[in-house]
Each structure stands twice: as C-alpha cells, then as structure tokens.
Specification:
Layout: E1 5-6, H1 7-14, H2 18-27, E2 33-35, E3 38-41, H3 43-51, H4 63-66, E4 73-77, H5 86-99, E5 104-109, H6 114-118, H7 130-140, E6 150-151, E7 157-159, H8 168-174, H9 181-186, E8 195-200, H10 206-214, E9 217-223, H11 229-245, E10 252-259, H12 266-279, H13 295-301, H14 306-309, H15 314-330
Parallel strand pairs: 4-8, 4-9, 5-7, 5-8, 9-10
Antiparallel strand pairs: 1-3, 2-3, 6-7
Length: 331
C-alpha cells in the first residue's frame, strides 16, 4: 500500500505547481487527507488527477456544465471581520476583470451599502435593491433580480443594497429554505455574466450563509495583522461546514488575499511569511498582496475604481495581478 506524502513533495515529484494540487485537494478533485494544516496525498492519486486533466473520480457537475453551456463563476468575498478590504476587493477586482474583457456583476450583500455608495449610487433613491428582490421572491418564489441591476462607471453591473437589508435576517430565518434565496435569485443571470462577485458583511449569519450557498468560490481577505488570523480560520471552518453539510458540497476557496500590507515594516513582512506558512499548506494564498494606500479611500470617495483613479499605481497593478490569478485558476 502506498504511503501518503505531503502535497508539496507530490508537486515536486510530478513537476507541477503546488497551488494546482492544493486547490484540487480542497475542492475534492484530488483525493487527500488534511492533517493539521497539511494535505497528504498518495502518488498514484496525483498521477490519476493529472492524467484525467483534473476531473473528479465521478462526474457530479450539473448537466448544463457537461454540455458546455456558459455558467458564471460566483465568488463571495467573505471573512467575519471588519476593515479587511472586502468592499475594496469586490470593487477593484471587478474593475480589473472588466478590463480583461469579463462580463461582471457585483452584488452588494452588506446592509451598510458601502459598495453601492462607492459606486456613486444613493441607497435611499433605489426603488429596486437586493432586499426588495428577496422580499418579492419570498412572497412569490419568482426570481426578479434583474430589476435591481444598475450599470456603473467601472464597466461592471451592480445590484445595490440599502440598510433595509438588515430586515432580511428575520425574514430569511423563518422562510422555508431561507439559505437558498440568493442562489435562486442569481440562477437566471448565470448565462449573462462571466463572474459574479458578492460583497458580504463582516460577521457570520444567514446573509453570509446565503452568499456561501450561492457561491462557487470564496476569496478571504486577510488584513496584515496577527489578530486577524482567527477570523480566517473561522471562515475556513465555515466553508468546510458548507461542504460537509451538503449546503454547498462543491464550495472552494479561491485563495486568501493579504490586504493592508505595509512592506516598509518588518512586522508586516514577517506577517506575510507567517500567513503563507500558517494557511498555505491548507488552501491557496494569492501571490499578489494589496499594499496599504490612501489611494483606495480616495478613489472610492470619487466613485471610481483604483484602476480609474490611479491607473498605473501600486493598487491598480495589484488588482490587475489578482484578476489574472483568478482567471488563471479557472484555466
């Protein structure tokens, strides 16, 4: 019987990138066993995975995917902590993907409405929002999210949010299959977009659960401070719960994105190394880091993406690089 070996050793043995194997192990395409923060795999399973071009052992994909129909990638930007850059990442990653020719829909799923405000829409002037679409669905079971879609100056479309989204906590809790509502609302739009990004609120609850049920992938922003690592661990546990409970068995982590990094300080440089060591053996960590910069709040105050506001600055280059990593992961 073959002895399992660490994922990194397997990557070296077969001459492939460790991130490719790590993503496959996390989302179930490569059989492995997670021991602590390290994946163990048997070489014959890695050989099988590479020979079959990354397919699962049994095909569990929806018929529309098997037949080659277009399906948008739904990516939730989520971590149960404020100030990590969820809205900044949703906005600027969306803009960078548009620049790459992708059709992008942004969903503001935070009652604070920060994404809506950053894109220049006044929440109190919106007749149709994510909350109104949810209320209509709960009373009719008919998805009409398209009524809430608004074009924006960054080239992506937006589903706006207002503070009334707070009411959904109680509404969804008592609704039948309340955790599936966002998934049902997005389903008719999957053929219209290439990527749908969901900006979430900074704590766990039924709204974030809706986002995780609807999503195919999760990007987890990690602020460059040691106290923030516990929130990432909690998010990874929540992803595993979604998978094991059957609410979303195919949910995967696109990667942990280091944000608010100040490369001038020794502490931040050490933290980046620590984060890659702490989480890198378990899930992908983006190669690109987002440096701390006053340009981000400035751009949002002007209702622009960082790509519009400071086209050749560090922030714009970073989010272009993140977008490329996201696209490469799907290749």
């Amino acid at each position: 019987m073959e002895e399992p070996i660490p994922l990194r050793d397997a990557a070296n043995l077969f001459g492939v990138k460790v991130d490719r194997l790590r993503r496959a192990a996390w989302d179930g395409r490569l059989a492995g066993r997670l021991v602590g923060n390290q994946w163990l795999v048997v070489p014959s399973e890695v050989e099988r995975f590479l020979r079959e071009s990354g397919r699962r052992r049994t095909q569990t994909e929806p018929a529309t995917r098997r037949e080659g129909a277009h399906m948008a990638r739904i990516i939730a930007v989520a971590v149960p902590k404020g100030g990590t850059g969820k809205t900044t990442t949703t906005l600027n990653l969306g803009a960078a993907l548009v620049e790459q020719g992708q059709r992008v829909l942004l969903v503001d799923f935070d009652p604070q409405g920060s994404l809506t405000l950053a894109l220049g829409l006044r929440p109190d002037e919106q007749e149709h929002t994510i909350h109104s679409a949810m209320k209509y669905y709960l009373s009719t079971f008919e998805p009409q999210l398209e009524l809430a879609i608004r074009p924006t100056s960054i080239g992506a479309d937006l589903v706006p949010a207002t503070i009334r989204l707070n009411l959904a906590n109680a509404e969804l809790t008592v609704a039948p299959q309340g955790e599936l509502v966002l998934k049902k609302l997005l389903a008719p739009l999957l053929s219209r977009y290439d990527v749908i990004l969901i900006d979430t609120l900074p704590y766990l609850g039924i709204l974030v659960e809706n986002a995780l049920v609807a999503a195919h992938e999760v990007i987890v922003p990690l602020e460059a401070e040691y106290l923030a690592t516990e929130s990432v661990s909690l998010m990874l546990q929540q992803v595993q719960f979604m998978r094991k409970s059957g609410l979303n068995p195919d949910l995967k982590v696109s990667g942990i994105l280091l944000t608010h990094v100040d490369t001038r300080t020794v502490l931040n440089r050490q933290f980046a190394e620590f984060a890659r060591k702490e989480f890198g053996a378990q899930v992908p960590v983006f190669t690109t880091v987002i440096k701390r910069s006053v340009r981000f709040p400035e751009s949002q105050a002007c209702h622009q993406s960082i790509l519009q506001y400071d086209t050749q600055g560090d922030g714009a280059r970073a989010y272009r690089a993140v977008a490329q990593e996201v696209l490469d992961a799907a290749a």
